[in-house]
C-alpha cells in the first residue's frame, strides 16, 4: 500500500505572523507538485494569518498543542473546536517538549489525541525515548507505553487518515544528532508492528509514521529511503526557507 508522505514544520515559539506568512508562501511554492503533503505548525497567534495566506494551496496548517475540552475555564488553552473554526486542521500531541517542560503525561496525550480526532482534527502523536532510556535498552518499551496510552483512547480502531505517529527520539530533537536511518527504521518497524498487532494489517499498512529529530536537507533522503519512514516532523530546519523547501522536495536531492 502506498502512503502519501508528510513533511511537517514545527515552528515552536518562533516567527511573527508576518514572518510566518512569508515562509509559508515559500513552502507553498515548494509544495506545488511535490510528492509529500505539507503541514505547518506556527504559534497559535500566527496560525490563522498563515492559514489565510495559504488559501488556494494544498498546504495545511495546525496547532502545536490542544486541550481536550472544547470550552470553559481553561486559561491559556486552545481547543479543537476553536482551532477548526480557524481552519487549523491538524494538532501535534505529546511533543517531548510538552512532556518534559510542561509535565504532560502519556495519559494526557491520549486524552488530547482522542478529543482532537473526535472533533474532526488530524493528529500527529509524538513518541520517543530519552537518551537514558535508549542507553538502558528501554527504547521499544517506552515507545510501546506511549502508543498504548496515546492511541488506544482515540477509538477502538484509529483512522489512519487522522492519526499519524511521529517517532522523535528526545536525544535527537534540536541537538543536531539524528538517528541513523537504520536505527530509526528499527523503531518505525516496531511501531507498525504494534499497529498490526492491535488493529490488523490494513490499518498498520495505512498508518503514516514520521521521523523527527534534527532532520535537514542533508539527511532527509537517507531517512525517506527506509520502508517504514513516511515523512518527517521538522523543527529547526523548518524555520529556514531554503532548507525546508529542499526537505519538501527531497526526491530531487
Ligand atoms: C521537533 O520539534 O519536533 C523537532 C524534531 O525539532 P528539530 O528538528 O529541531 O530536532
What do these coordinates show?
The chain is α/β, with parallel strands linked by helices. The protein has one domain (6-252): Aldolase class I (TIM Barrel). It contains 11 helices and 8 strands. The protein has helices spanning 17-31, 47-53, 80-85, 96-101, 106-119, 131-135, 139-151, 181-199, 201-206, 217-224, 241-248, and strands at 6-10, 37-41, 60-63, 90-93, 122-127, 163-167, 209-212, 231-234. It has an 8-stranded parallel β-barrel with strand order 1-2-3-4-5-6-7-8, surrounded by 7 helices. Strand 3, helix 3 (80-85) and strand 4 (90-93) form a beta-alpha-beta unit. Helix 5 packs across helix 7. The longest helix is centred in the C-terminal third of the chain and has 19 residues, at 181-199. It is globular and about 45 Å long. Bound molecules: phosphoenolpyruvate.
List the helices and strands and how they pair.
Elements: E1 6-10, H1 17-31, E2 37-41, H2 47-53, E3 60-63, H3 80-85, E4 90-93, H4 96-101, H5 106-119, E5 122-127, H6 131-135, H7 139-151, E6 163-167, H8 181-199, H9 201-206, E7 209-212, H10 217-224, E8 231-234, H11 241-248
Parallel strand pairs: 1-2, 1-8, 2-3, 3-4, 4-5, 5-6, 6-7, 7-8
Helix pairs in contact: 1-2, 1-11, 5-7, 7-8
This protein binds phosphoenolpyruvate.
Amino acid at each position: 500500500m502506498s502512503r502519501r508522505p508528510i513533511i511537517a514544520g514545527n515552528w515552536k515559539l518562533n516567527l511573527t505572523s508576518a514572518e510566518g506568512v512569508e515562509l509559508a508562501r515559500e513552502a507553498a511554492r515548494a509544495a506545488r507538485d511535490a510528492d509529500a503533503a505539507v503541514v505547518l505548525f506556527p504559534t497559535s497567534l500566527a496560525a490563522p494569518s498563515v492559514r489565510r495566506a495559504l488559501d488556494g494551496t494544498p498546504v495545511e496548517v495546525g496547532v502545536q498543542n490542544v486541550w481536550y475540552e472544547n470550552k470553559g475555564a481553561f486559561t491559556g488553552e486552545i481547543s479543537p473546536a476553536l482551532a477548526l473554526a480557524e481552519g487549523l486542521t491538524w494538532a501535534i500531541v505529546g511533543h517531548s517538549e510538552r512532556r518534559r517542560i510542561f509535565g504532560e503525561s502519556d495519559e494526557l496525550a491520549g486524552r488530547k489525541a482522542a478529543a482532537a480526532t473526535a472533533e474532526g482534527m488530524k493528529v500527529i502523536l509524538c513518541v520517543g525515548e530519552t537518551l537514558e532510556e535508549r542507553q538502558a535498552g528501554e527504547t521499544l518499551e517506552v515507545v510501546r507505553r506511549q502508543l498504548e496510552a496515546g492511541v488506544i483512547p482515540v477509538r477502538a480502531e484509529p483512522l489512519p487518515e487522522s492519526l499519524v505517529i511521529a517517532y522523535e527520539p528526545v536525544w535527537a530533537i534540536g541537538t543536531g544528532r539524528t538517528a541513523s536511518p537504520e536505527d530509526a527504521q528499527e523503531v518505525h518497524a516496531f511501531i507498525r508492528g504494534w499497529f498490526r498487532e492491535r488493529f490488523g494489517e490494513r490499518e498498520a499498512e495505512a498508518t503514516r509514521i514520521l521521523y523527527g529529530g534534527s532532520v535537514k536537507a542533508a539527511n532527509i533522503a537517507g531517512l525517506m529511503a527506509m520502508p517504514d519512514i513516511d515523512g518527517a516532523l521538522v523543527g529547526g530546519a523548518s524555520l529556514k526557507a531554503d532548507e525546508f523547501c529542499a526537505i519538501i522536495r527531497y526526491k530531487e536531492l
